Amino acid sequence: MQKQINDPMQLVEQDFHRADQWKAEARALAGNDEETLAGLIPVAYAAEKVEDRLNAYAEDMARKVRLSYPTQVIGRLMETDEKFKLPTTHDNTIKLLRTRQHRASGLATRRQPRS
């Protein structure tokens, strides 16, 4: 990936819950060269055309991000998509979701295995 990711939750902040973001990143990594692009897409995403393979890969990766970080995705959609804008308490809801995200992220890094 060309974008710096230090925490998997940053995938949502960088809009990788959307398939078009995965496609744009793959195309940029490939330098818009179709042969290079074909080599970047895992062989498990089989199709006759490279574009079809890219679509399947991008949709699957975006779906995985959405399933892994549903709260973060809803928060991001509320920030960036007018369809998700609340008529009242919009900013407070986003603030609450962000607070929960940061707490969850901190808990995940502090958890110790039980002996």
Description:
With 115 residues, this protein is an all-alpha fold. It has one domain (10-110). Helices cover 63% and strands 0% of the residues. The protein has six helices and no strands. The protein has helices at residues 10-13, 19-29, 34-40, 50-68, 70-80, 90-110. It is elongated and about 50 Å long.
> H/E element string?
HHHHHH
**Uncertain runs with pLDDT below 50, 5 residues or more?**
none
Number of separate structural domains: 1
What profile does the largest beta sheet have? none
The end-to-end span amounts to: 37 Å
Mean pLDDT: 83
Radius of gyration, in angstroms, nearest whole number: 17 Å
Strand residues, percent = under 5%
**How many helix segments?**
6
How many extended strands? 0
The geometry reads as: elongated
In short:
With 115 residues, the chain is an all-alpha fold. Helix content is 63%, strand content 0%. The chain is built from 6 helices and no strands.
